[in-house]
């Protein structure tokens, strides 16, 4: 995982939005509005794309390939940079979407032959469980993107990268027999 806490994206940074339209508190209108704004920015600035997680229901292989492609393809005007360091991911949903997106990024990049460099991940809270956003102070992100999407994107690009601990929790059920 990236250990630098001050690495900022430059103008050649790409944003990949992972959108979970089934996320807890999101409405169809909010998701449609978000996707429209992403598409508009992609056409005008060419610095972002979206992956609608629901579109790959049951096809993890295709989803992993899409994630790998979106996070390793350089911007059109920056063919010299093929590093994932010029990409930032934004999970659009709740805490479950953040976890799902992180797993996708991790799995997609583990198979790369080069040194694994994790893509920084942020959250645009749409779900009902937004503890990850709260901890990092992103609770107001939804109002921010609805009022000024371009400003939100630039803030994500300029934001500092911090590390977070990841935990795996496994439990076993113990049943006593008489």
How would you describe this protein?
- The structure is a single chain.
- By secondary structure, the chain is α/β, with parallel strands linked by helices.
- The protein is built from 6 helices and 4 strands; from the N terminus they run βαβαβαβααα.
- The protein has a 4-stranded parallel β-sheet with strand order 2-1-3-4, sandwiched between helices.
- Strand 3, helix 3 and strand 4 form a beta-alpha-beta unit.
- Helix 5 packs across helix 6.
- The radius of gyration is 17 Å and the shape is globular.
- The N terminus is likely disordered.
Q: How far do the termini sit from each other?
A: 48 Å
Residue stretches low in confidence (pLDDT < 50, at least 5 long) are 1-6, 79-84
What is the H/E string?
Answer: EHEHEHEHHH
What gyration radius follows from the Cα positions, in whole Å? 17 Å
- Which of globular, elongated, flat, extended, rod-shaped describes the shape? globular
How would you characterize the largest beta sheet? Answer: 4 strands, parallel
> How would you write the strand order of the largest sheet?
2-1-3-4
The pLDDT mean sits at 78
Tally of separate helices: 6
DSSP helix fraction: 25-40%
Extended strand count: 4
Give the helix/strand class: alpha/beta
Notable characteristics:
38% helix, 6 helices, 4 strands, globular, alpha/beta
Topology, pairings included?
Layout lengths: L13 E6 L8 H17 L3 E5 L7 H13 L14 E7 L1 H16 L10 E5 L5 H5 L5 H7 L1 H10 L20
Parallel strand pairs: 1-2, 1-3, 3-4
Give a brief description.
The protein is an alpha/beta fold and 178 residues long. Helices cover 38% and strands 13% of the residues. Helix 1 links the parallel strand 1 and strand 2.
